[in-house]
Amino acid sequence: MTLPLFQDRFTGKKNSSFRLLDVAVSPGEHASLGLPLPELMEYAPLYMPVKVMNGRTEGPVLLVFATMRGDEFNGMEIIKRVTSLAAMDRLHGTIIAVPVLNVFGVLNRSPYVPGDALLENQFPGSPHGDYAQRLAHLFVENLFKRCDFCLQVGSGHLNHRMLPHIYADFSVRGNRELATHFPVSVVVNSDADPGSLQAVAKACGTPMVSYSAGEAMRFSKSAIRLGTRGIPHLLREIGMLPGDGHEPEKPVAAPIVSEENEWLFADKSGISRHEVALGDRVAKGDLLATITDPLAGLQEVKVQAPYDGVVVGVNEMPLVYEGDCLLRLATFEQMEEAASALQELARESGAPEAATPEPEATSTP
Q: Mean pLDDT, to the nearest integer, of 253-265?
């Protein structure tokens, strides 16, 4: 075992039954459950899919979930592949896996829940609020409060392509430790926003990290591949999965931590033409994009880098409005090392994407 974070949970004793949603899952068993969701007029009953994997020996409880926004598809594919791995038969502890949190959004191919609300800022929710607040409350009370640590799997917004990265609030004990053992190139220290599940986790002292890669409404082979390998790697580092007894073909490099990572916004509406790409290193004052207004005599506004950094996110929609996100810049102490690693990752992420993800073997990655 590498990480001491949950060391006291690994007693070597036989695990006990794990009870969730009035179902007892015996040690060594897997169960597919459904959490009833708030009712909608004229809709058939909806259920949030929940898979419980209860290991034969004691260990911590991990909650891993995806699709906070209903237009994110990479995460549900990652969770499907990870929970299908043969290595899960040797699990220590328990995994609660939720491939689709926002069921209504997925059915409607929309990031929203009824009432045109975004679920991501509705936590901890309320049993007496609107649909979004009730859904957030159900998730927190029935699932989140049962875990020792939590992993969210997400994507960028529609037309916003993100390099694979982990973000977490390092002020919470254990978050930096977890984040830096997930095999991605970038880890971002990000304060928990009010109303977010991260804020609930911070208030509870529950470690929580988020993996984000690719963009909404599209499968990204590289994002799925890295997430499918990254979660089992993290579980082995914690001790929830045993080592496979083989040295990796390529050593896993320690991720580079960014203490500052923010979007740059458009100061004018028009057609945006980027002068940089994902993974590019830029210096303060460099030209990042040109925005041309076709309805105002083709007036142009040039967007310059406010500081040295590396491009880790791109809005690929040509038409932007004033205040829209354009590019995301991250700063690093080890700028040369970061730029080299991110350019390599950007080349992998920029490969042509298939309409559907490639099959994944069900052996330990």
A: 78
**Dihedral sign (CA 238, 344, 328, 68):** negative
pLDDT, averaged across the chain: 87
- Prediction pTM value: 0.85
208-215 vs 149-156, strand pairing mode: parallel
In the prediction, which pLDDT does 294 show?
84
Please tell me the distance from the alpha carbon of residue 49 to that of residue 102, in angstroms, as a whole number. 10
Residue 39 CB coordination number (10 Å): 11
Structural domains in the chain plus CATH codes: 7-256 (3.40.630.10), 260-332 (2.40.50.100)
d(CA 360, CA 290): 41
Tokens 């499907």 sit at which residue? 80
> Checking DSSP bridges between strand 160-168 and strand 208-215, what pairing results, if any?
antiparallel
Q: Which of 147, 148, 114 is nearest to 37 (CA)?
A: 114
Residues 6+ apart with CB under 8 A from 42: none
Residue 218 bridge partners (DSSP): none
Q: Is 236 left (phi over 0), alpha (psi -120 to 50) or beta?
A: alpha
Return the minimum-mean-pLDDT range out of 13-22, 203-212, 274-283, 343-352.
343-352
**How far is the CA of 310 from the CAs of 95, 218, 283, 305, in angstroms?**
35, 24, 9, 10
Token look-up 């549900």 returns 76
Note whether 171 and 190 are within 8 A (CB).
Answer: no
